[in-house]
Design goal:
The structure holds two protein chains of two kinds. In chain A, the strands form three sheets. A seven-stranded mixed β-sheet of chain A has the order 3-2-4-5-7-6-12, sandwiched between helices. Chain A has a five-stranded mixed β-sheet with strand order 9-11-10-13-14, sandwiched between helices. By secondary structure, chain A is an alpha/beta fold. Chain A is built from eleven helices and 14 strands. Chain A has two domains: about 150 residues, 3-Layer(aba) Sandwich (Rossmann fold), CATH 3.40.50; about 170 residues, Rossmann fold. The two termini of chain A are about 25 Å apart. In chain B, helix 9 links the parallel strand 6 and strand 7. The radius of gyration of chain B is 18 Å and the shape is globular. The chains are: A alpha/beta, B alpha/beta.
Chain lengths: ~325, ~290
């Protein structure tokens, strides 16, 4: 086993059937309540999805600090900007497809250009939304948020990390986008796993590594399963949990590119403009090594279980293994 | 606060100085909107020189009233009013829209102290004002949030999202002022997207509605005073204004919505109209 001990991950991390499975969005609900307890200026706004986005716990605990917005995401973003102008720290939640999807310009102008500290929580991001189908599967949200100046973009990989990211965003300042997956995904980190916005974590360090797998969101655990397979075939791997897409931890990415000479990026997002593209922007400027991109390839999703969809769209464990072998050959 | 006759005369003179500064600004910049800003000169004058609780020397004063300009494209008139009120030197108005200026083509909050929010894309100002009013009320503050809007931006769905929320929240501390000049870029509002019955629409969403003459200081002042004492409801003042007010050839002509005067005779005529109050007095330059 080549798991980084310092990461304090759970035992049996590679035995999928033994891992607890919890929706990542639950971490938003927990982190929001914790932020609300610590900072009296934290307020929450939600666009008619209070239970689903897990804003409910905050709304019950702090009813005077919760604003129900109705199905009005453009208003959601700009009202939050106005509240931030008066010193509040608003957390706004909806499905990622609608916020930051439908209200992108309001986020750009009234939050980002206006330099307001608003945390945008996009639920149901990625393909693992599952049965709801393509209309509700946000696979463009990283691209449209990271392209806006002043924005921080985070994709937590499990419920604990989502909790930490949500809480940490309260003291960050400036606009923050955090994306959350819908369906249950493996809980493989622990409350003691280090987490800092803007710092990538090394979760796996194989001997004499030939390739680095750089992943974010639920794809990190798939990368771990792929690393196991690759190790069994004698291929050493490094795994980076690249949860903060912007500002990216360039040093860690460059170091790992130097060490391995080849990268594979993995994300539940279009490969155009997503986390992998952001990694490529860093790599081409600093240490050009071959990169393979695992993600959605210029198509829309569809209904199905998360596992079925991840497999069909070419983001499963075997796809990661194939991409790793391919990129090593390209060296 | 009472508005007496001497004060009204003073406001009229100030408004005219602000209009002149506006024409100077636009001519110097070579681009920008004419009609809307001219039509709002009186209202901006009333707000900055009588109504607002503010301190130009301390623009971040926490308990100040907030003035949100939603239709950011008329910012040259806000800049002119702010300069005359003492936020920055009048001379700086000449930098409008130029490289390195604090007076951006559309207002940018972090560029210029005293600007409450960045605006330009229509339809989002009222939402921000609603957010400010909700937050202000949470903290038990007594200040007012004023939101200036155009009539044209009521085509945007987001404006009505904000109208609905303000009504539900009974935001007594929110006062909307609509520049009802009946024009937008492509023509007359009622031809492009009818807004009438405007009054009834706001009323149906739970607002207190007042119609006022946007060029009559006493009338506008009384409308604002009434708005300030309305309990349990936000108020909107539909301020009837004349686009291009003060420059005869621009008045009520939508073609002047989005451009400044450029030909020498146009500029001369505009300034002459303003300096003579439309021929009623003699210009100091005559």
């Amino acid at each position: 086993m080549s798991i980084n001990k310092k990461a304090n991950l759970v035992e049996n991390i590679l035995e999928l059937e033994k891992l607890e499975q919890v929706p990542i969005r639950n971490g938003y609900g927990e982190g929001l309540v914790e932020a609300g307890e610590k900072y009296p200026s934290v307020v929450a706004l939600c666009a008619d999805l209070t239970e689903s986005t897990r804003t409910e716990a905050f709304a019950k605990k702090f009813p005077d600090r919760f604003v129900q917005m109705g199905v009005a995401e453009q208003n959601l973003a700009s009202v939050a900007s106005g509240m931030a102008a008066m010193g509040k720290i608003p957390y706004i939640s909806s499905y990622a497809m609608f916020s930051p999807g439908r209200n992108w310009e309001q986020i750009r102008t009234t939050i980002c250009y206006n330099e307001r500290h608003v945390i945008i929580a996009g639920a149901h991001a990625g393909i693992s939304v599952g049965p709801d189908g393509a209309t509700h599967q946000a696979i463009e949200d990283i691209a449209i948020t990271r392209v806006i100046a002043n924005m921080t973009v985070i994709a937590p990989s499990d419920v604990h990390e989502a909790h930490k990211a949500t809480f940490a965003a309260a003291s960050l300042g400036g606009p923050v986008y955090i994306r959350f997956a819908r369906e249950k995904t493996p809980v493989y980190t622990t409350p003691d796993t280090p987490f800092e916005i803007g710092r990538a974590e090394i979760f796996w360090e194989g001997k004499d590594p030939k390739v680095a797998l750089v992943a974010c969101g639920p794809s990190v655990h798939n990368a771990l399963l792929a690393a196991k397979k690759l190790s069994e075939e004698g291929i050493g791997v490094v795994i980076i949990n690249n949860h903060t897409i912007k500002p990216m931890d360039e040093k860690t990415i460059i170091d790992v590119a130097k060490k391995t000479g080849a990268l594979v990026t993995i994300e539940e997002h279009q490969i155009n403009g997503g986390m992998g593209s952001a990694v490529a922007e860093v790599i081409t400027r600093n240490i050009p090594v071959p990169i393979e991109f695992v993600g959605v390839q210029n198509r829309f999703g569809e209904s199905g279980t998360p596992i079925e969809l991840v497999e069909k769209l070419g983001m499963g464990v075997d796809s990661i293994v194939q991409a790793a072998k391919k990129v090593i050959q390209r060296k | 606060m009472h508005l007496h006759d001497d004060k009204i005369k003073e406001l009229e003179e100030t408004a005219n100085k602000i209009r002149e500064s506006l024409i100077d600004e636009l001519v110097e910049a070579g681009s920008g909107h004419s009609a809307g800003p001219l039509g709002m000169a009186d209202i901006f004058t009333l707000l900055y020189f009588h109504t607002l609780k503010h301190d130009p020397k301390n623009p971040d004063w926490e308990d100040r009233d907030r003035l949100v300009l939603s239709n950011g494209h008329i910012c040259p008139i806000q800049y002119a009013a702010m300069a005359h009120a003492g936020y920055f030197p009048v001379e700086e108005l000449k930098t409008l829209r130029k490289f390195g200026t604090r007076l951006q083509g559309h207002p940018h909050r972090t560029s210029l102290p005293g600007i409450e929010t960045t605006s330009g894309p229509l339809g989002s100002g009222l939402s921000q004002a609603v957010g400010m009013a909700i937050a202000s009320r949470m903290d038990g503050k007594k200040n007012f949030i004023y939101c200036l809007m155009s009539d044209g931006e009521h085509d945007a769905g987001q404006t009505w999202e904000a109208v609905m929320l303000a009504g539900r929240e009974k935001l007594w501390n929110l006062i909307g002022i609509i520049d009802r000049n009946n024009i937008q870029i492509d023509g007359m509002t009622e031809d492009i997207m009818p807004l009438e019955p405007f009054r009834a629409k706001y009323g149906a969403f739970g607002w207190h509605v007042i119609d006022a003459n946007g060029h009559d200081f006493m009338n506008m002042h009384m409308a604002i005073e009434q708005a300030q004492v309305v309990q349990e409801k936000p108020t909107v003042i539909i301020a009837h204004t004349i686009p291009g007010k003060g420059v005869a050839y621009m008045e009520r002509d939508y073609l002047w919505h989005g451009k400044p005067p450029t030909k020498p005779e146009e500029i001369k005529q505009a300034l002459h109209d303003l300096r003579t109050l439309g021929g009623r007095i003699q210009s100091e330059h005559q």
